[in-house]
Specification:
The complex is a heterodimer of chains A (842) and B (648). Chain A is of the alpha+beta class and 842 residues long. Chain A has 28 helices and 13 strands. Chain B starts with 7 loop residues before the first helix and ends in a 30-residue tail after the last strand. Classes of the chains: A alpha+beta (842), B mainly alpha (648).
Chain lengths: 842, 648
Amino acid sequence: MPALESLFPRDEFGLLGLIIALPLLGAIVNGIWGRRLGRSAVSAMALTVMGLAFALSLVTVCHLHSLFTESLHGGGGAGHGERVRLAWTAWEWFHTTGGRSGANIPIDLKFSVDQLSGIMMLVITGIGFLIHLYSTAYMAEDASYARFFAYLNLFITAMLVLVLGDNLVVLFIGWEGVGLCSYLLIGFWFGKAENAAAGRKAFLANRIGDFGLLIGMFLLAQYTGALDWDGIARNAHLLLSPSPAARVHVWPVGGGIYQGMWAFLQPANVVTISGATAVSLALFLGCTGKSAQLPLYVWLPDAMAGPTPVSALIHAATMVTAGVYLVCRLSFVFVLSPFTMTVIAVVGALTALFAATIALVQNDVKKVLAYSTVSQLGFMFLGVGVGAFTAGFFHVFTHAFFKACLFLGAGSVIHSMHAHIHDDAASQDMRNMGGLRKYMPVTFATFAISTLAIIGTPFTSGFFSKDEILFKAFTNHVVHPMKDKFAQRGLGVWEQPTWVGPALYVVGVLAATMTAFYMCRALYLTFFGDFKGWAIGEPSAAKTHADHDHADHGHGHGGPAPAPHESPWQMTLPLVVLAFGALFGGWLNAAPLHIEPLGHWLDPVFAQAVSQGVQIVGGEEHAHHLVWPLAAGGVAAFAIGSAIAYWMYIASNGAPAKALAERNKKLHQLALEKWRVDEFYGVAVVGVAEATAETCAAIDHGIVDGLFAKATSSVVAAAGFVLRALHTGIFHAYSAAMVVGLAGFGWFFIAPHAEASVNQAGGSYAIHAAPGMGYSFRWDADGDGKFDSERFGPTRDLSVSVEPGKTKQVRLEVKNAFGLTGSTTITLGTEAKKGAAVVGLR
Amino acid sequence: MSAHAHTSDETAGDVTARPGAFVVGIHEIATTALAVVAIALLGHYADSAWIPAGIAAMLAFAAVHAFDRQTRLTVGAMGGLAALFVVKMWPTAHALAAGEPFVESPTVLSWLVALPLGGAVLMLFMPRQAHGLLKNLTLAIMGLTFAASLPLLSATMGAGYHFDQNVAWVPQFGIRYHVAIDGVSLWLVLLTTFSVPLATYVSYGSIKHRLKDWVFSLLLLEAGMIGAFISFDLFLFYVFWELMLVPMYVIIGVWGGQDRIRAAIKFFLYTMFGSVLMLAAILYMAYAYGQVAGVPSFDYFELQRLVLPRSTQVWLWAAFALSFLIKVPMWPFHTWLPDAHTEAPTAGSMILAAVMLKLGTYGYMRFCLGLFPEASIEWGINLAAVAVCGGILYAALCAWQQTDLKRLVAYSSVAHLGYVMLGTFSMTPSGLEGAVLQMVNHGMSTGALFLLVGVLYDRRHTRELADFGGIASKMPIYATMFVIATMASVGLPGTNGFIGEFMVITGTNASLRLGHFAGIQAIGAALGVVLGALYMLTAVQKVFLGPVTKKENEGLADMNSREIIGIAPMIAMIFVVGLAPNLLLQSISGATTRIIRDVNERIDASPPPEFHRGEPKLLNRRPEAPVLPVAPVGTGTPGAPVRAEIRG
């Protein structure tokens, strides 16, 4: 595309600015003027900017592709393309201090797109557009229509900033920006207290993660002296500097030494970790917040309080995958620490399993999907944690389609349920649904396709992406990139145990089995069997839609109502498109079949990381033979999970499930209550924080403001009390004090005071005797012990010169008006050693 | 009350009942702002800044044609000033080339003090009953002061001092009228001239009695604050430092809340306590200088030459630092602040938070670091720990526990200023720049928050969090503004708060002066970001979200024209600084680099803890110091005492 290239050179690719500015424009216009513009104008605005942004993203990625192909065929590529990158600097933002020598690190408002962020950009704008379209119908009745689209557009802007940012700080704008939008959208219906609480919880959990990201940033600034991707990549090796001073001292904190009374704290061996481990762990803390991993996942299920399109866009397809994106983006930093990589993989696998156990028993369709999202994110982290960045990221891509489709499908169902059941919780309860496939065929079909994809039905998108992760979990081994160098210096490194890979595989398969079960369960409960929501029939004339109680409990009104209806085309069209993607998207990276266009596309991005620290157990050849045997595990998970669900909910119509729940009542209850983790956090984290805060507030009130301030004022009061006692008003006391005072003065005047000040200039000194009433002076200037003149005279000033390196003693005697004499000796001279003047007085 | 005094707030208040009509809303403000910015940007190509400013003023005046004259004039004036600001901030190469080379006027700083000071005197001769006259005249004077401060932006700051004016005042004691600014004080002066008129304008909605005294106090306060920022003679500094204390005392004591007298006395005693110690230290400094140089001097640049032995320096440093740290305020001297803020009227709180507290941080940066580098470095390590534990973390936790919204914001001020102090103690370029930026940021975001709390207080006469709930549905504009200010306060990237906090945190981590505690202190500071979100969002949730539970809150009116006009510039600045902090940083960094270099040179000359031993001595004048009108005395060379004092 030469025209495009001439218009936008690689380093000034202004199109990126336009792609970001368009949704921002939509947000501003809809946010400020939206209420005056009216609904149709608002939706036109929002859809136009999104459509344009998507089109421009498409153009950008096509351009990127042509550059990539060029590099593929160009010289030196050797079959592998390069990482191609289009960048645009908006302006110089600010700068900070870092690096070893305290250098200046410029932080520009710079955006860039490469293979990785290109895909993300397409997903964000593409799925974003579909969800905007969907929302025009879903939110049609809402009073705050313009506000909704302003927030949604703002979210897209922030998300684009997140993925397009060329340095960690610009990424952080987007990172926190999406957090803000998530906060605003979760609490979109802020009239209900629990929605507002859910929003706050999300923001705070994310903030804890952001705390980690902040730490990661300043550590990166310190170690690599850069915060932009290229700079970090260039200096990443500094993170592994083996010298003890360049490591992060965990204990004693910062590398001090505990002495004296604290000596017992001093350990025999100081505890240090490499800069790479510190940075990557801190960054990963950020990822656990944003991507809802253990231990910070608790906000995501609550976040379903927001409107369903928000759940689909933010809390399934885009924002929550930001953590995975960050790990992929900084893959070259993460692989430097096998420890962190193992932590990521283990956390991912455990989250996948843990969230799946909760999803097994939930009755709220959105809750099932929420926990499913947490679980799937766990899979993604499992993938990137074992160094399979392409596989992990591919799961981000496929997940975006099928999970968005599932959420939108659920939204479509809730939309039609909500027409007659106005209680939010009840309208989302799967026990009130059933048999909807008759009434909502399109929704059913798309939901079913997406379910097939997520449970890993062979040759759907989920099958390819999930199996690739499980395969890599088994075969990959992350090794320390500088193991040999460290060994030469006699330094040990942490190594990943060999059993980790197979263990991760087993946990993954277990989680996949559960996924198959709970997703099929959701599908069967919602769309199969009989409809349980309300009696279907003609509504009675007395009970029209308008006059029934909106704050109605569970099941709406008793009378019959029309059957649930299919949603309008604005809602079904996105479903169809997404289902198409869910079904066929896997062929972009069908690794077992060696169809890997996406893999090749992304390879250059991950090349640095993979070549450094990822080994394949038993070699490539050996692993190759394991592809299909290991895939069997995934297929078995799909088959077993869905078969059990079929047996429980279709063949036996839910009876075995009820029996099982009856038999393990407490366990079922515990799982239903999400293992009571929220309650545990409430006591262990929030409770402790609250207690600390209460203590602080009490100290502030009682001690700082009470005791300290009172103590100070009471000192003043006490002084006043004492001084007041002196002011008795008794004349005798006053005159006695006066006599004592006058006597003191008298003594001072009578006693002679021989004092002098000395000024030095070069080797000569000017001595100046202090004057007094009736004083006369005599001097011994030459230091021979005799006074120059026996007579006291009026001469107060004396000049003396001293040869360098020698000292001289000058004597002064004074006589006052009462004939009393006093004397002093002054030593003048220079100290040869320092060459500085020394003036002494004896 | 004369008919004239029926200004827009009453009018606007009357018509809020009619929804959508006759309240200057966000729509008008945004439309006008866009137009003004567009004109100003076009104005780049004009040779004079006054043409676009004039057009913008007329346009803004016309844009709100449906409103009364008072509102239109205000909006017009603000439009003009905004355009002027934009033109000064972003001069194009064309405009720079077309204009004559910039000549620094030595009197411009004096005008900045003289205008409000003269205005205050003028107010004494105005009729007490003519409210409209008092209000408009005061605003005009303050607007003029702001306009007069804009030329300061035209100077290239670098590491030097500018707009220097140095006139003998009391020659026999070495007291001079010496004013100047550098990259640090430039922004604080502008912050003052920017936020005082806004606070004043907003206050007209709620201050109904003793108006003459009110405007007199505000003008005097403005003069005092500007004076303190520009003084480079310690005596003059002290005069202004105390001058601003009195009006603030009166403002809290006369127009404050229920417990105003106690709060005013507490405020006065705390700050006075520090001040008198500082006075003693100033006098000693001048005396010690006189001992060495022959004649006493209060001049900052001369006193900077004075090297004192450790024993003396630490005490002098302590006296200065105590005064400044009480003003900041830092733990454990902070308890006057929540009381003063809670009881002060809205405008008082705004000025107190936006400007007055900065005098503490500014003073520390200018005088403690400048005059006592060795002592500052020796003690800075310990104080950094206080800034983190006592300021950033402790104050944030306290804020979380407050039930009074204004107290909460006051405690958040303590936490925010903890960042400023931490950045100052870190002695890294980024830390110090971040500290200066954070001073300005805190002025914007906390000033805005206090204004917003005042809006609520005016309507309900309570600030208890429990008395509200769900009012976002009743006051959508208000809620939006509050959330924006909240996000700036919690340091969301894209707003100003983030830049300052980020620079301070990275600067702290990179600090060598803080020793091996730098890392853990940076982590503590980062943790403060989480706590900030915790208390602010808790407050937002309790006040704005959820259902409307109290009947009194059902009929709450949204922000009126006056309040919206008052807060709009601050909200705009939150984003301007957040997105283009380099505008400020490029003139700050020269000065902060100089501060660090000055300190480092002194330290390196005699490394701690063995810093200067022996008798006081004079160094050479710093290279950036302005040229003296008279030749400096005692041109001593470093390392050799010029004159020794004899004790015996």
